Amino acid sequence: MRTGGWVFAVLIVFGFVWRIGAERNVRTERISGSAGDVLEDDPVGRLKVYVYELPSKYNKKLLQKDPRCLTHMFAAEIFMHRFLLSSPVRTLKPEEADWFYTPIYITCDLTPTGLPLPFKSPRMMRSAIQLISSNWPYWNRTEGADHFFVVPHDFGACFHYQEEKAIDRGILPLLQRATLVQTFGQRNHVCLNEGSITIPPYAPPQKMQTHLIPQDTPRSIFVYFRGLFYDVNNDPEGGYYARGARAAVWENFKDNPLFDISTDHPTTYYEDMQRAIFCLCPLGWAPWSPRLVEAVVFGCIPVIIADDIVLPFADAIPWEEIGVFVAEEDVPDLDTILTSIPPDVVLRKQRLLANPSMKWAMMFPQPAQPGDAFHQILNGLARKLPHDKHIYLKPGERILNWTAGPVGDLKPW
Amino acid sequence: MKLSALQQSYLNRRSNSFRSSGALDSSSDSSIKSTSAIFWLVLHGLCCLISLFLGFRFSRLVFLFLFSTSATTNLYTSPFRTASELAQTLTVHSTPIRDLEFPPGNITSMAGGSSGSSRVVVGRHGIRIRPWPHPNPVEVMRAHQIIERVQKEQRLQFGLKNPRTVIVITPTYVRTFQALHLTGVMHSLMLVPYDLVWIVIEAGGATNETASLFAKSGLRTIHIGFRQRMPNSWEGRHHLEARMRLHALRIVREKKLDGIVMFADDSNMHSMELFDEIQNVRWVGALSVGILAHSSDADETSASVIEKNEDEENPESLPVQGPACNSSNHLAGWHTFNSLPYLGKSATYIGDRGIVLPRKLEWAGFVLNSQLLWKDAEDKPEWVKDLDALTHNDEDIESPLFLLKDFSVVEPLGSCGRQILLWWLRVEARADSKFPPGWIIDPPLEITVPSKRTPWPDAPPELPSTEKVVTGVQEQIVKHSSKTRTPRSKRTRSKRKRDTKIVDTRLPVRNSEQN
Fold first, then answer.
1. Do B26 and A253 touch (CB under 8 A)?
2. What is the band of B373 on the pLDDT scale with cuts at 50, 70, 90?
3. Which residue on chain A is closest to B133 by alpha carbon?
4. A175-179, B153-157, B180-184, B303-307: lowest mean pLDDT where?
5. Quick check: B96 and A244 CB within 8 A?
6. Nearest CA in chain B to A306
7. Between the CA of residue B305 and those of B292, B299, B339, what are the distances in Å?
8. What is the DSSP letter of B194?
9. Hey, which of A248-252, B43-47, B426-430 has the most confident mean pLDDT?
10. Is B359's pLDDT higher than 90?
11. φ and ψ at residue A275, rounded to 5 degrees
């Protein structure tokens, strides 16, 4: 009895010492989303992906023509291809594959200023699907239900940068059954299918790593934002761009010393973010932006002002606990909302952000690291397995309408 | 072609309901087909030309007068639908100040698509501005509390793991400028984020006046009186201060205070980074001290003295005392104060007209681990002498280096002396200058005199020195002494309405008490 008491006491002491020792390090908290603690899952062994061999006019030639595709925020499609080519989940035997990937760089048609033109994308996609459906039997087997495509453009597979036109077009009819891996996410929107996987936009990881500042630099900026409030080229009067939310932020808080907001392009942008407590991530022409990625990497709590937005890996990451969501109609009360957050909640959010698995999940590093965005995409695909038997069509059955869509899309590419 | 594409895209951006199938295609190389589109295009072009001519968008007014049903000047607005059928090409937009409501159209069902009803609408929205878009002070305070909490957490996580107590030793005595200097040091110490013990040694015995100065600081203070009076000469003052500091070190030893001992003279200026930097010391550290050799004479400042020696030294450089390092960042020597340029101009007596010079190495530039002073500390290094052993022999100790047998163990702090974290300054009024005790004027002043000329009833007292500098100009002396009086006479002006009486004669008596 006495020895048992001694052992118990020793264990208690040990537990205290271990806890104190653990507190010495940076305090982080485990991330568990609605899918569980899945950020650290390893997809290897849980799924097999077959990569189609497409002629280089769909991928390599586009990249050769314009290497800027590797650095803009839609570069995820290119890096995903490269990752899959050398990943252990890749299989060379399509019969045993669970998922099929089509390496098509759909947003690599850039204007001189670097913005992607989506006008030819539907035709390019159509021609790629015609190719794979005629050369391999796997498309026709399920009409694409076990295929996935990376479409990182503004409104995903709606292939337009203007929201109204994108809504009109809707998702390309041929992609209706496929799983879309896209950056755009908004609830009850045409351009977001059920079962799509939202990913973060591409932000260059090396550039962010080189701008890290010492962790003990005190965070002295309360709210930080750099970017446009009025898009004078396309929407000079305001009210259209960002649904008026960014303009409202400017008009309400330009005099507020707690808000460090302006349209400057400082060279210390990344360093400033690391000195801020809250970073605004309002919508622009599309609801997503790389600011979310930057805020997460630099430990600044993201303040998301975009109604009904679906954030990256929403089933794995509990964004409600990490960021602050502000409805667009509540923007004039943004300072009240932010200052009324209890300090403990702020500290908890910072602990969640400090979790390295959270930071890795937002990045596309070269070479791939465990837990990074590539692996989260694979995890998401693995969570959708096993495929439902209904996706397999009976021979001769056709669901997709190959002639649907605007007439211009039917022209060959 | 480009123009029509531009106009067409403009059309398409604004028109939601005008969706004849396939007519207004998104593809840029299709041409305009339907006649109604052409009609609207022509109308739009016409309106553009008229606006160009008039210089503003008159269409806004037209639609305001024709079509608005309830024009409100409400600052808050709900997102209104852009597509009422009549406002195809020329939608009324919201200015940041006013806003107009339109009868909501039936468009969301078409725009939102078939996948459920979305409350997010595409199109033009109002810019919401609240009536008083300025910060609320209560919220600002809360924000600062959040910032402070976050920074405290950051310090806990990434800052120093075991911050040591800072033991500050300040010699002082009651004089005119004491309140000024001591309050400055006190405020600096109140900002230090570490535990602090402030040992205040007062020459002439512990007085209530000094105690009242730091009573409200909230710091842990040890107020000690030193029986000797502070002499009037700078030389004597330096000696006495050294002895007072030694006395304080003995107190540290007696009480076995654990921490880092630093010497904060009451007229010095300390930066906050200093206190962070001294936490890095292991046994003995040395810092760079910026020397502000200042003359109380307004005509001749140290700058002009240095200018005369332009050939010899760099005139713009501030003299700095501290450790000198070689290229491998090890202690190689010392920068000391060169008093040669100031020969003959230096002040001898407190309140003198000359330039007040520091010693070769000031005490303020050194920090010690308090364990060096203890009688029996476990890991006291062998190069440290015992405090008791010396102090009986010679009381003429210039700097804390007396404790060391070997000077090379001193650690240079502040990136090897390159950062100046504190400044040495000696500004004092004349020893016989008068100031109200406790800086409280009691009883209230009753003479009201204009501040320009202050006929002072007392004759300026005899100076104790025989320095030729001082006995020169009588006027300058009067001016000098009147300098200390102007704050009072300014006060008398404001109390003009009160009854007047002769100024109390307690002051001269008090003055003689001081010296």
1. no
2. confident
3. A252
4. B303-307
5. no
6. B120
7. 13, 11, 12
8. S
9. A248-252
10. no
11. -105, 10
Q: CB neighbours of B226 closer than 8 A, spacing ≥ 6?
A: B171, B201, B202, B203, B204, B205, B240, B243, B244, B247
Contact assessment for residue A49 and residue A80, using Cβ atoms and an 8 Å cutoff: no
Q: Is the pLDDT of residue A33 over 50?
A: yes
3-state secondary structure A266-306: CCCHHHHHCCEEEEEEECCCCCCCCHHHHHHHCCCEEEEEC
Q: Which of A398, A406, A226, A199 is nearest to A298 (CA)?
A: A226
d(C-alpha A248, C-alpha A280), whole Å: 13
Interface test with B, best of A164, A258, A324 (most B CBs within 10 A): A164
Name chain B contacts of A229, Cβ cutoff 8 Å.
none
ipTM of the complex: 0.86
A26:B27 CB<8 A:
no
Contact B128 A215 (CB under 8 A): no
Q: How far is it, in rounded angstroms, from Cα B470 to Cα A182? A: 85
A249/A263 Cα distance (integer angstroms): 12
Select the residue of B12, B139, B154 nearest A165 (Cβ to Cβ): B12
CB of B403 closer than 8 Å to CB of B372: yes
Token code pair at residue A145: 């239900």
Cα–Cα distances (Å) from A163 to A241, B13, B28, B121, B333, in that order, read 11, 9, 16, 10, 71
CA torsion sign, B486 to B488 to B489 to B491?
Answer: positive
Q: At what angle do helices B35-54 and B2-14 cross, to 10 degrees?
A: 100
CA A30 to CA A321: how far, in whole Å? 12
- H-run or E-run covering B169: strand B166-172
Q: How far is Cα B16 from Cα B81, in angstroms, rounded to an integer?
A: 10
Q: Please indicate whether residue B118 or residue A301 has the higher confidence score (pLDDT).
A: A301
CB neighbour burial string for A341-362, b if at least 16 within 10 angstroms, e if fewer: bebeebbebbbbbbbebbbbbb
- Can you read off the two tokens belonging to residue A371? 């837990």
Q: What is the arithmetic mean of pLDDT over B465-474?
A: 42
Q: How far apart are CA A135 and CA A289, in angstroms?
A: 37
A-B contacts at Cβ under 8 angstroms: 170
B47 touches B75 (CB < 8 A): no
Question: Pick the residue with more confidence: A332 or B405?
Answer: A332
Chain A stretch 20-59, residues whose beta carbon is closer than 8 A to a beta carbon of chain B:
24, 26-27
Residues 6 or more apart whose Cβ sits within 8 Å of residue B476: none
Report d(CA B468, CA A106) in Å as an integer: 92
CB atoms within 10 A of CB A20: 9
CA A255-A260-A262 angle, to 5 degrees, is: 85
Set of chain A residues whose Cβ sits within 8 Å of the Cβ of B91: none
> Is the pLDDT assigned to residue B229 strictly greater than 80?
yes
For residue A98, the tally of other CB atoms under 10 A from its CB is 18
Minimal C-alpha gap between B5 and chain A (Å): 14
What are B343's two structure tokens? 């020969």
Q: What is the rounded average pLDDT for all residues in chain A?
A: 89
Cβ–Cβ of B146/A253 closer than 8 Å? no
- Per-residue pLDDT at B472: 38
Q: A247 — contact with chain B (CB < 8 Å)?
A: yes
β-bridge mates for residue A179, sequence order: A148
